[in-house]
């Protein structure tokens, strides 16, 4: 496939930068598939209310990744007695249940988070949750860490793109 760029807008919305020749050749295939296939995937549009108040990033990752993003200014703690942070530092002693709890809190409970960044090696620990997450907001993006390189074969967003193109 002649893709020269992928921009993830959300877990269900992708912007692909295709070479003109590949786009032209695939355009009619896509149109035919979406108009003639009764089992085609449904496309859900997010309303403005869905993203209006989503102004923060959340991060689940190793200490270096979280620290770097906090130094960049993404840190936020909610007001009130049940103050919640928008980050989770994961190390070798962090239990999978704690990672799942943070993921659920950031994606389901917190309505002020627009993007969840998660180190790919951490996402592997809760891969079943990442792969089944389909909401438009917040977007879940897998990122590499200093000690664990990025593997595009594991990324659920890129797998969805490949499935869309029939590869």
Explain how this protein is built.
The chain has 167 residues and is of the alpha/beta class. Helices cover 38% and strands 21% of the residues. It has helices at 20-36, 48-51, 63-71, 96-109, 120-123, 127-132, 156-164, and strands spanning 3-10, 13-18, 56-61, 87-89, 113-119, 139-143. One of its GO terms (cellular component) is proton-transporting V-type ATPase, V1 domain. V-ATPase is a heteromultimeric enzyme composed of a peripheral catalytic V1 complex (components A to H) attached to an integral membrane V0 proton pore complex (components: a, c, c', c'', d, e, f and VOA1).
Task: Please outline what is shown here.
By secondary structure, the protein is of the alpha/beta class.
Topology:
Layout: E1 3-10, E2 13-18, H1 20-36, H2 48-51, E3 56-61, H3 63-71, E4 87-89, H4 96-109, E5 113-119, H5 120-123, H6 127-132, E6 139-143, H7 156-164
Parallel strand pairs: 3-4, 3-5, 5-6
Antiparallel strand pairs: 1-2
Any key phrases for this structure?
disordered N terminus, two-stranded antiparallel sheet, single chain, four-stranded parallel sheet, 2 domains
